Amino acid sequence: MQAFPASHPSPVLDARALSKLHWRCRRGLLENDLFIEQFFLRHEGELTVFHAEGMGALMDLADNDLLDLLLRRKEPSGALDLPAVHTVLGMLRDSGAIPAHGV
């Protein structure tokens, strides 16, 4: 489990903010949805404003660009080269597209 860096303290998301984040993360590409679904299953209770900022930046990407990052074909650069993006991307990659229950 990866938390936000100590230099970036951030409050945990309340139910309304978490609901908005879920809505914001809806994607058109199934592969991205699988990563995102597992991310929320594993980290939903610990997500902070810092994480929401990173996730928001990633959700601004086109589906194929996001998938390239998730599959480690690319790394964040330019405007995406931010601590929040790196943290959330690491959490998404660690969550993977494999269901948490192992099926």
From TrEMBL:
Signal peptide: none annotated. It comes from the Bacteria. InterPro entries: SDH (IPR005631), SDH_sf (IPR036714). Pfam families: Sdh5. Gene3D superfamilies: Flavinator of succinate dehydrogenase (1.10.150.250). Keywords: Chaperone. Belongs to the SdhE FAD assembly factor family. This is FAD assembly factor SdhE. The lineage of its organism: Bacteria, Pseudomonadati, Pseudomonadota, Betaproteobacteria, Burkholderiales.
